[in-house]
């Protein structure tokens, strides 16, 4: 018999790493194996401290700008993060004779191409996204200055005054709230009936799938925990989705040690999911922490199974990853 209070954990699936994150981490690991340390990475490869620190321990050095790479190390590779970079960054790398590997998620690259297509066809580009996010900076940086406008909210869409309302095309950041974005697009379409949509959905499959799973699991949850970093857009959206979909309260946590056990309130049903850059080992760590305090029953809340896989860069496909390397890539380190 146990005197611990009973707790049902609704564990969402899909959760955690997506194919783009998995590919980006693999690229850094493969580059370290092929070229040796240090491998420089411009910006956090993905928005997760645990992942970044694990790669640092293997010999990756993270910089915000290419100027930070010492001259004596400029024959070492530099990796561009999964969020994408403005065109000026590879141009700068070429000017400095740097060898670079682009780990931009293929679905972010697809948005870049969609934005460039709009512009090539004479449309002014509306980018729906969050100001200052690396992905937004990267997408806006694909286009000449003055050819793209950032819209963040329905209020922005209401106030927007384009020079040529007849020639507009939109794309979106890949990690937005599906519902919020639908509202912004609807407002823009109402005001500008000629607005051209991208050829394919910009919000990525992983963002959509994780939000759908949280929506299904949230009703009746006393608390919903999202494992992710405070600078992770897709993780923050999951917190919002959980509360909108019926969870009494939702929190973003990076590690179990951040949980304020004294202020959780009465718990009988707990929801757990993880943003696309959060490793499964941290989910396990949090479940273990609850298991020490509660008599836990796990209820799997799976809405779909993801099978996507993205190839790494051609230059490093000849390197083989060991089982230990793959465990590291999957977040078990």
Automatic annotation (TrEMBL):
Q: How is the cofactor bound?
A: Binds 1 [4Fe-4S] cluster per subunit.
GO annotation terms (biological process) = dimethylallyl diphosphate biosynthetic process; isopentenyl diphosphate biosynthetic process, methylerythritol 4-phosphate pathway; terpenoid biosynthetic process
Pfam family membership, one: LYTB
Q: Which residues are involved in binding (2E)-4-hydroxy-3-methylbut-2-enyl diphosphate?
A: 47, 83, 133, 174, 232-234, 277
The residues responsible for catalysis, as annotated, are 135 (proton donor)
What UniProt keywords apply to this chain's record, in alphabetical order? 4Fe-4S, Iron, Iron-sulfur, Isoprene biosynthesis, Metal-binding, Oxidoreductase
Query: Required cofactors, per record?
Result: [4Fe-4S] cluster
Reaction(s) catalysed by this chain, per the record, are:
isopentenyl diphosphate + 2 oxidized [2Fe-2S]-[ferredoxin] + H2O = (2E)-4-hydroxy-3-methylbut-2-enyl diphosphate + 2 reduced [2Fe-2S]-[ferredoxin] + 2 H(+); dimethylallyl diphosphate + 2 oxidized [2Fe-2S]-[ferredoxin] + H2O = (2E)-4-hydroxy-3-methylbut-2-enyl diphosphate + 2 reduced [2Fe-2S]-[ferredoxin] + 2 H(+)
* Transmembrane portions of the chain: none
Question: For binding dimethylallyl diphosphate, which residues are annotated in this chain's numbering?
Answer: 47, 83, 133, 232-234, 277
Q: Which one of the record's GO molecular function terms can you name?
A: 4 iron, 4 sulfur cluster binding
* Pathway(s) annotated for this protein in UniProt: Isoprenoid biosynthesis; isopentenyl diphosphate biosynthesis via DXP pathway; isopentenyl diphosphate from 1-deoxy-D-xylulose 5-phosphate: step 6/6; Isoprenoid biosynthesis; dimethylallyl diphosphate biosynthesis; dimethylallyl diphosphate from (2E)-4-hydroxy-3-methylbutenyl diphosphate: step 1/1
Which top EC class is named for this enzyme in its record? oxidoreductase
| Residues engaged in binding [4Fe-4S] cluster | 18, 105, 204
Q: Does the keyword Oxidoreductase apply?
A: yes
EC number per UniProt = 1.17.7.4
Q: Where does isopentenyl diphosphate bind?
A: 47, 83, 133, 232-234, 277
Family as reported in the entry's similarity comment = Belongs to the IspH family.
Could you tell me which NCBIfam families the record lists for this protein? ispH_lytB, PRK01045.1-4
Give the protein's function. Answer: Catalyzes the conversion of 1-hydroxy-2-methyl-2-(E)-butenyl 4-diphosphate (HMBPP) into a mixture of isopentenyl diphosphate (IPP) and dimethylallyl diphosphate (DMAPP). Acts in the terminal step of the DOXP/MEP pathway for isoprenoid precursor biosynthesis.
Stated name of the protein: 4-hydroxy-3-methylbut-2-enyl diphosphate reductase
Q: Per the UniProt entry, what species is this protein from, by scientific name?
A: Pseudochrobactrum saccharolyticum
């Amino acid at each position: 018999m146990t005197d611990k209070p009973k707790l049902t954990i609704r564990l969402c699936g899909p959760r955690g790493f997506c194919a783009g994150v998995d590919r980006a981490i693999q690229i850094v690991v493969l580059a370290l194996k092929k070229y040796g340390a240090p491998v420089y990475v411009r910006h956090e490869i993905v928005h997760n401290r645990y992942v970044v620190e694990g790669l640092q321990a293997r010999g990756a050095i993270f910089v915000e700008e290419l100027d930070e790479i010492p001259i004596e190390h400029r024959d070492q590779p530099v990796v561009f993060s999964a969020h994408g970079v403005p065109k000026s960054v590879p141009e700068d790398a070429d000017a400095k004779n740097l060898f670079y590997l682009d780990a931009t998620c293929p679905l972010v690259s697809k948005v870049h191409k969609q934005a460039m297509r709009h512009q090539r066809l004479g449309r002014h580009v509306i980018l729906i996204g969050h100001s200052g996010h690396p992905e937004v900076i990267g997408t806006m940086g694909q286009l000449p200055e003055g050819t793209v406008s950032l819209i963040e909210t329905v209020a922005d869409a209401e106030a927007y005054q384009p020079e040529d309302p007849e020639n507009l095309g939109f794309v979106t950041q890949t990690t937005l709230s599906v519902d919020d974005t639908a509202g912004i697009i609807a407002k823009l379409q109402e005001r500008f009936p000629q607005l051209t949509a991208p050829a394919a959905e910009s919000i990525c499959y992983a963002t959509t799938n994780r939000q759908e799973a949280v929506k299904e699991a949230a009703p009746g949850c006393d608390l919903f925990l999202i494992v992710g970093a405070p600078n992770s857009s897709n993780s923050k959206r999951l917190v919002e989705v959980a509360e909108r979909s019926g969870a009494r309260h939702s929190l973003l946590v990076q590690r179990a040690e951040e949980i304020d056990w004294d202020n959780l309130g009465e718990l009988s049903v707990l929801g757990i999911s993880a943003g696309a850059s959060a490793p499964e080992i941290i989910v396990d760590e949090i479940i273990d922490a609850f298991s020490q305090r509660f008599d836990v029953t796990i209820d799997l809340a799976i809405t779909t199974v993801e099978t996507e896989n993205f190839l790494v860069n051609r230059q490093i496909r000849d390197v083989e990853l060991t089982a230990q390397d793959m465990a590291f890539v999957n977040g078990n380190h």
